[in-house]
Amino acid sequence: MANVPDAPLPVRDGLNPTRLRMPDTGPWPTVLGYLVARFPHDETRLREKVATAEVVDERGQPITESTPFAPRRFVYLYRDPPVEKRVPFEIEILHRDENLLVVDKPHFLASTPRGAYVAESALVRLRRDLDLPELTPAHRLDRLTAGVLIFTVRREVRRDYQSLFDQRRVTKEYEAVARYDPDLLLPATVRSRIVKERGVLKAYEVDGPANSESRIELLEVHGAAARYRLLPHTGKTHQLRVHMSSLGIPIHGDNFYPDFYDVAADDYSTPLRLLARSVEFADPCSGVTRRFASVRSLDWPL
């Protein structure tokens, strides 16, 4: 994860302030003029926020109506969160100590605020429910993936634990339910080059040196379906979903791979049968080996 400087505004109601970088050049005489041009539908609220000193620069100094436009500078403000329908699934806490909070995330709940899911994310829910304003994810899970998700509790240890994931010093085990193919020889290691372009929903495989690797093992057969153990060596976006699809056994409930089909945001009838079963690592603070495992299970498709 990128090492972003601490914001000059505190977390409020579980939400970080938004950080905006002003362009290199522009015709706007003031910072407020730039903000209004960028968010014209929010002009009234932006002017209210400036009037109440809720928009600040990187030093924490309030932006006023006359603050000059400053190229490449940052401003911080609280955006009004969207009105959201509650995702009707609860977070289970697996472990909590002075440094870590480990949870069992349900399907359909985003790990962190993004797009239409802001308050309805694991991070914001937990900050609010547990009064932990410094809570920060050490890694992320896709919204549709359930299982073990680790947060740091204090900013002093944040980078230590995030580095474990950045440097691949974590052993992660997933489980998935997909079609059973008796002709598929398993276990198998899949290596490929995966590309995920900004603004494009799906990742895809291209020719070239491999930048992703997953080991796929068969655990159990249940009629026409099977349960698989997935051991990713790398962490590309949608890697396990792409690799399972490339083997001809896309994960049950995957509406992205091999072909995308639309699913309503409040349709919880067919969860993606992908579970982050466990995470294991040497604790960077104590040196002790730690393992956390999900207590969730994956249903067989009907």
UniProtKB/TrEMBL annotation:
Residues 1-22 are annotated as: Disordered. Pfam families: PseudoU_synth_2. Residues 99-246 form the Pseudouridine synthase RsuA/RluA-like domain. PANTHER family: MITOCHONDRIAL RNA PSEUDOURIDINE SYNTHASE, PSEUDOURIDINE SYNTHASE RSUA_RLUA-LIKE DOMAIN-CONTAINING PROTEIN. One of its GO terms (molecular function) is pseudouridine synthase activity. This is RNA pseudouridylate synthase. It catalyses: a uridine in RNA = a pseudouridine in RNA. GO terms for biological process: enzyme-directed rRNA pseudouridine synthesis.
